[in-house]
Amino acid sequence: MAKAKKLPSPCIDVCKFRREGHCIGCSMTKAQKKMFKSLKKPQHQHAFVEMLAHQQSDMGKYSHWTQAYLKKCAKKGVTPPVGP
């Protein structure tokens, strides 16, 4: 059986922490970035990305992230847990 491809990090390589410690590119804090790296199970990674999408929605001004993350997932050949 083929191994499932790993979900890429929600980071979109902006990494500027300005909004009360949240990155202006992906909305993650430094602690959240570290946490995502520690998640090994695909269902945990997917749940994290879904939580992050809700966080971005609550904070506002992250509409650019979805397209960037979908492109990153497509490049890696992975089905993303979020859609446009």
Report on this model:
With 84 residues, the chain is mainly alpha-helical. It has a domain of 55 residues. Helices cover 49% and strands 6% of the residues. The model has no long low-confidence stretch (mean pLDDT 92).
Set out the fold topology:
Elements: E1 17-19, E2 22-23, H1 30-38, H2 42-59, H3 63-76
Antiparallel strand pairs: 1-2
Which keywords apply here?
mainly alpha, two-stranded antiparallel ribbon, 3 helices, globular, DUF1289 domain-containing protein, DUF1289
Can you describe this structure in just a few lines?
This is DUF1289 domain-containing protein. By secondary structure, this protein is mainly alpha-helical.
Compute the CA-based radius of gyration: 12 Å
Number of helices: 3
Order of helices and strands: EEHHH
Provide the spatial order of strands within the biggest beta sheet: 1-2
State which percent range the strand residues make up: 5-15%
Share of helix, binned = 40-55%
Morphology call: globular
Assign the structural class, choosing from mainly alpha, mainly beta, alpha/beta, alpha+beta, or little secondary structure. Answer: mainly alpha
User: How does the major sheet shape up?
Assistant: 2 strands, antiparallel
- Termini separation: 31 Å
Pfam families: DUF1289
InterPro entries: DUF1289
Protein name: DUF1289 domain-containing protein
